[in-house]
Amino acid sequence: VYFAFSNEGSNNGDIDWDAPSGGIVGEKFETEAGQLRMELSARVDASPDEVWATFHEPERSDEFSENVRISRLLEERGNQKTVLFEMEMFGQLQRLVMEFTFLEQEKRLKIRSLESQFSGVEGEYRLVSSPDGARTLVTYAGTLTNKAGLPIPLSLQKKAATETFLSTIQSLKQGLLADQ
Questions:
Q1: Whole-model pTM?
Q2: Residues 155-170 pLDDT 10s
């Protein structure tokens, strides 16, 4: 963490699992009453178990992401982690405290912002395996709420959401390489 825009292809049956895994393979955006709802999908060339293990370490994001300056674990209890992030977006340093809830059986990760200067974030990441189990479709579905009270152009909101998702995917891929 909209205006209706869709690039279909996020359905597991529609994915070309053999195509190069460069970027986003599916996206949907909708706006309503100061909220941007989105669904973004990308393919990662690793098994769901490998991707899930990497998702379990959001506090290591600063090791793998160019945009994240600081990522520090504040608290861990049960299946939840609270992590502080300082990240650069559009040349501005932003501070966020995020809560991560890991739903092991479903390989779903719920996220929500506990502290954020400009926007509230709530959503989840879902993992879907390729038929051979060697690749994973990572889908983020969530809502971004404008907390700043300033009119933020839709194009800027969409760009921020897309860049954050792509940064997350790139960070995941870097984490997977580091753990090999």
A1: 0.84
A2: 777 888 888 888 888 8
Q: Which amino acid is at 39?
A: E
What is the distance between the alpha carbons of residues 140 and 130, in angstroms, rounded to a whole number?
Answer: 17
Burial 132-155 (b: 16+ CB within 10 A, else e): eeebbbbbbbbbbbbeeeeebeee
Token pair belonging to 8? 């279909």
Beta bridge partners of 70: 86
Q: Render pLDDT for 45-58 as a digit per residue (tens, 0 to 9).
A: 999 999 999 999 99
Pair 98, 85: CB distance under 8 Å: yes
Instruction: Determine how many CB atoms are found less than 10 A away from the CB of residue 64.
Output: 21
H or E stretch at 178: helix 154-178
